[in-house]
Amino acid sequence: MKDLVDKVAVVTGGASGIGLGIAKALARAGARIALLDLEERALAPAEASVRDVGGDVVGIPADVSSRYSLDAAAQRVIENYGRVDVLCNNAGVVVLGPLAEASAEDWRWVMGVNLMGAVNGVGAFLPHIRAQGAGHIVNTASTQGLSASAGLGVYAASKYAVVAYSETLRAELAPERIGVSVLCPGVVNTKILEAARNRPPELAGAASAAPSALLDVLRPAVAHGLDPARVGELVLRGIQQDAPYIVTHPDARAAFSARAQAIEGAYDELSRR
What we know:
With 273 residues, the protein is an alpha/beta fold.
């Protein structure tokens, strides 16, 4: 999708971080923006910041883990703009700690937002994209969806699933001229480590505290992470080029290459038997 002028883009998790960076980049390219976010109090200042870059924007409270909530949000977008051309399923959360200590509530919360948020978004908005005869979907995964790290297992599992979902969806929607990209960012300066502020009480569970050693590494890394505005620029380019994968951090390539080589090595070993 080369030209985004007057197209309508829906961005979930759009009130801050990567979502807001994407929204601003698309707004600068001429798209009209629907910002969806669970954190209602953050929507008004986010809308104002999109308007500051010349964007036409509407903020809509929505819970991506609920298909009902996204169906209602889709109706509001259609009432406001009459169409949907681009969908960015960006909302995401994280829990930290060893997999063996993760609670059932940890799994339900992370999968409900990170994976089912994308599934629900597609279910709610794809019919409206199809009505335009073409469009684009971006699902936010992570470098953790390409190569997992200790202490981030629940998050990584959800992001691996988003990668597989996106790859399959791309193949299935290509004949309809609907592109699908999967965004795999590295460490970005966002509030991801504060995700528990929006965790539902019924999913609080008995999760163990995040390991302090891991937080000691992640907090400064996130604080000095990539500017979300740069991620937004890369997403805009990915949409315009119909890129299957959108990456942000060149240094993450080594871990992915090591994983790919290990898999190739297993096939090489099989061929020698």
